[in-house]
Sequence to fold (588 residues):
Amino acid sequence: MFFTRLGAITAAWLIGLTVPVQADTHNLLKGMPAVDQGPLLLLVVEQPRQLAEAGRNLAAYRSATQSLPIVQEILETTRVRQFYQLVHYAEQELGAEWPTLLDQIAGGGIAIGTIAGPDQPPVLLLAQGTEESAVRAGYQLLLRIIEGEATRRGQPALRKAQYRGIATQHIGEGFHAACVGTKIYLANQEAALHAGLNTQVSRKPVRTLADLPGPTAARQLIGGEPFAWLWFDFAKVKASKQAKDFFENSRKDIFQNLLFGSTADALRRSEYLALGLSPTPTGYAVELKLPAARADLPVGSTLHVPQEPKPGSLPLLMPNGVLYSQSFYLDFGELWRKREQIINPQQRKQVEKGLADASRFVPNTSLPEMLETSGPYHRFVVVNRPEKLYATEAGLPIPAMAYVMSGCGQTFGPTVAAGFRAAALLVSLQNGLKMTEETIDGVSVVSYRFPENRPFLNDDANIRFSFVPCFATVGDTFIVSSHPGLLKDLLSELKKPAAPQSETAAVWRGRAFAQGGAEFIRTHPDQTITATILNTGVGLQEARQQVDALVAWLRTLGQYELSLDHGQKAFTLRFEWSISSPSAKEMR
Fold:
């Protein structure tokens, strides 16, 4: 409990930004002991002031504190008010504002190490300061606060001790601390504190994290100047029987291969995991990196990774009003051609039989033939389209969606189109779907509308009136959409010049747009207003005002992208938050 309380107190110091102080990471790691038992987890905050200020200065944060009632309520809670009171108290006691205090007390970096696995693993925190007098004053203030909290709760008083000539302080079984020069050590176990102090006073050489190859390699793989980074010793995890069984089973399981085969293989080949949080020109990025070279991918894991110089994925589709856009590579043709190497015998027999049975209902072809001629490039997009598709109001407004497959063989598009027409004909005979076909820029677009004067598939909520299914074939690309207007926009999108290679390196990318979400709520506010009334008990007018505030706040959130790439030297999973203002196109 004391260590949990310590986290809240320490957070008060991890806030601020003035002139940055560059942490000496190697020297910081020399103060962290290496251990043999269990996989080790290390978190290093190289720029604590910048990290904290990154969140504090966000327009989205400032806007939320001013306009969103739920955020204002959180800021008024007892714990949050106590936190700010604690920061103010520290400033008064130490004679400086918290940005300066943070730089003095932890400007050299913060390292936190633990062992993954045990129920109560040892945790050791090292804060490296830049001014010894400030470090000691801050340390004494921390002890007074912790001791005062313990007294208030009727818990054990502060106990003083010595370890190899260094004064140590302890409260109960969960708080242990010491200050050595410009270093502050905090631990949840006394043995962990002593292990940290040994790096400072032992006459014999002590093995530290600076001596291990893993942390140094992880920091080099991350590169740049991250706010913080993490290293996890994955080699010990891989040695377990559970991990070995997982990696062995995933290699020839068709479903796991389709979902995350190449990612699982990158984990299998990695000795460690590296995670970094860094600023970007437009926001912030978190990257998970695995030291697994692309060239070492085995057969079966290459379903998601094309051979160079092919792009990893095609450019994201960005029609007006886009909420979410996704692009990835997945080669079903290679899966079928190399099924004996990729799929285990039992699953392979089931798949082959299932495809053979289903092929009886596919005119003029077979499903295996369709797999071989299908395209390996897939894109999916969700768009806000405010115009109504029917005179009847849809009971639940649903954004327009489209799926685009590219790189198909010459027979794939016509074959799939024939299958769509046959299926739609069967449905139309019973439910009266109305088919229309029009030519747009030389492309035949087929659409199906639901009847408005008769029930359909027990759809009492009229959800069907959010959809007008349609499809088209453009060269080697097949498009199916829920909205004809979106499909027409995509025809224009597909004619755009090719994107630079750097923008298509990732084999999987998904991007979400807060602006599109805001516009969807603005054009379909009823559900959100109703939920606000039910959840908060406010009146209709106030609920509308709160929804308007929510829409305005969402517009400040920018866009979010998750991508996956198998680079020449490393596998990278990247999450990026871009906070830059939306373009004129995204605003429409």
About this structure: Residues 2-230 form one domain.
